[in-house]
Structure formats: structure tokens, C-alpha cells
Model the fold of this input.
Amino acid sequence: MDIKLENNNIVRFVTKEKKILQQDYIRIIDPKYPKSIELFPMCSWCKKIKMETVWEELDQAINKYGLLTQSVTPSLTHTICEECYKSLTSFM
Ligand SMILES: [Zn+2]
Done:
């Protein structure tokens, strides 16, 4: 991804598809399942989930914390993780 600060304080994001990966269906991001009251922050950029104080890869968080073995699917709230925030603001 290229990020450029242009005139008039406009930020332009240019992305290129490098590789397409096939992944198994992930129920946690399917909106048709009932959701938990507890909110789990998910980074909108890298899709990591913050579990307690640690950002985990989505697949790792599901397996490590058994997120899909519960009767309701965890609710996600979107934010940005510190690592992505640093990479996005490093050019400023
Ligand atoms: Zn992130």
C-alpha cells in the first residue's frame, strides 16, 4: 500500500493485490449469527482482534480463546491497532 499526502491535506491510499488466499468460512464475521454483549476490538486494517491487552491474528484468537465454541458469536467493534496506526502515521 502506498500512502501519499497530497495538496489540501488529502491522503491518497493506493493498494495493489499481491496474492489471493483461499480461507475457510469464518462465522465470527458473518452478520447473520447472534452476537455477544461483550465487544472485541478488531483492527480494520489487518483484521487482528485485541484479546485482553494483546492483538491476535483472527484465526489464532478463535482457536486460543474458543470464540466459536460459545453459543453466541463474539461482537466485533472496529478500530485500528497500534502497529497499523504507526505505519499509517509514520509519513506525517
Ligand atoms: Zn492492525
